[in-house]
Structures are given as structure tokens and as C-alpha cells.
Specification:
Oligomer: heterodimer
Number of helices of chain B: 0
Helix content of chain B: under 10%
Largest interface: A-B, 22 and 24 residues
Radius of gyration of chain A: 13 Å
Shape of chain A: globular
Order of helices and strands of chain B: EEEEEEEEEEE
Structural class of chain A: mainly beta
Number of strands of chain A: 11
Largest sheet of chain A: 6 strands, mixed
Strand content of chain A: over 45%
Number of helices of chain A: 0
Strand content of chain B: over 45%
Order of helices and strands of chain A: EEEEEEEEEEE
Helix content of chain A: under 10%
Distance between the termini of chain A: 41 Å
Structural class of chain B: mainly beta
Chain lengths: ~110, ~120
């Protein structure tokens, strides 16, 4: 079946740069999204990549390499409010329009 | 525009009781998704609808779970009878189209505790 793997936890300090990696099974894959979820809150959409390369949105960027079955979310100029869980989520042909979520990476930003 | 609205926000009930979770998607969105989130299993898709029609319910854990979408502005997820292992946060999400570049907009979730 389809699955995505990402680290369970990442820690960093304010002002730093952090990269959250995501690997996925190739079969039927056609796009990768990233969502942010603050503790107790709703997941919110950050970015989407269908093609190889980097997509930049302010302090956040997302990258995809289809040949490596790999993507990452890059967070720059970290702030305390960036402490949250980050989920990569894949679109696969077999799942139609449904997203398959990774287990999430908890980012803790300290001062 | 109002976001996805879920009710109730919290539900505590005893096992064996019927539980009904409600969702109002964003107006104009054609797709509605129900997810369940637990520490062990993460965020799992239960079922999704396109234009009020269930498309894929393969994620519904068992016959105790059922979902309906009687019109474009309302959906329910029902558990009958409920069991302690159903305790989780249940999210509803909607998207404008089924295209993969369309973000899914999540509601604030229903935190369900079955005693």
C-alpha cells in the first residue's frame, strides 16, 4: 500500500533553519502536500509539490524529488510559534482524491 | 467565509451509546472528508464524498461506523454502538475540487472519549 515516512521529532532554536524529510512509496504517487497542526488544533495546508523542485512561500519552502521518492519541508528563521506537528501527505492514484498522511514530525523550537 | 464547522467540539459518553458527529463544509466545496486522529495510528481517512455521494469508505473501521451526506452543507458520522477504542479526534475537511493541488480545509475536530 501507500505509506510515507518522516522523523517523529525535530528540535531547533529560534532563528535557525530546520528541514523535515519525507520519503514515500513510489507506486501510483503523483503529489506531495504539507500540513501544519498546532497542539489541539486543526491541520492547515502549507504547500503542494507535483513537480521536482522547490516551492517557496515566505519562510517555508517545500521540495520534491520524484526520482528519489523524497521531499522535504524547509522552515527558515524559526520562531517559537512554529512549534507544531508537520505532516507530509501524498496523493496516490490508487487512493483517488484521498490524501495519505505520514505520522507527523513534532517540531520544538526553543529560545 | 466561515471555515469547516464541526459539532460537538467535545463528546464524552459511555460505551454502547450512539454517537453522532456533525460537519458543515465550506460553501461551494464539492469534496468532504472524514478523518480520525490517534497517537498510535496518526491521521487516517475514514470516508470521503464527492457532491454528496460516498466515493471511498474503505477506511471505515467496521460496520459500527456510518456516514451520510444528505445535502451539500451537512454531513454526519455515526458510531453505534460506541466502544472505548473509538476514542480519538475526528476531523472533517472539505476541498473545492478533487484536484491534488487543492488544499483540504479542516474543521477544529471533535474530541471523542468513550468511557
Amino acid at each position: 500500500g501507500q505509506s510515507l515516512e518522516q522523523p517523529s521529532e525535530v528540535t531547533a532554536v529560534e532563528g535557525a533553519i530546520v528541514q523535515i524529510n519525507c520519503t514515500y512509496q513510489t507506486s501510483g504517487f503523483y503529489g506531495l502536500s504539507w500540513y501544519q497542526q498546532h497542539d489541539g488544533g486543526a491541520p492547515t495546508f502549507l504547500s503542494y509539490n507535483a513537480l521536482d523542485g522547490l516551492e517557496e512561500t515566505g519562510r517555508f519552502s517545500s521540495f520534491l524529488s520524484r526520482s528519489d521518492s523524497y521531499g522535504y519541508l524547509l522552515l527558515q528563521e524559526l520562531q517559537m510559534k512554529d512549534s507544531a506537528s508537520y505532516f507530509c501527505a501524498g496523493y496516490f492514484n490508487q487512493a483517488g482524491t484521498a490524501l495519505i498522511f505520514g505520522k507527523g514530525t513534532t517540531l520544538s523550537v526553543s529560545s | 467565509d466561515a471555515g469547516v464547522i464541526q459539532s460537538p467540539r467535545h463528546e464524552v459518553t459511555e460505551m454502547g451509546q450512539e454517537v453522532t458527529l456533525r460537519c458543515k463544509p465550506i460553501s461551494g466545496h464539492d469534496y468532504l472528508f472524514w478523518y480520525r486522529q490517534t497517537m498510535m495510528r496518526g491521521l487516517e481517512l475514514l470516508i470521503y464524498f464527492n457532491n454528496n455521494v460516498p466515493i471511498d469508505d474503505s477506511g471505515m473501521p467496521e460496520d459500527r461506523f456510518s456516514a451520510k451526506m444528505p445535502n451539500a452543507s451537512f454531513s454526519t458520522l455515526k458510531i453505534q454502538p460506541s466502544e472505548p477504542r473509538d476514542s480519538a479526534v475526528y476531523f472533517c475537511a472539505s476541498s473545492h475540487t478533487g484536484d491534488s493541488n487543492q488544499p483540504q480545509h479542516f474543521g477544529d475536530g471533535t474530541r471523542l472519549s468513550i468511557l
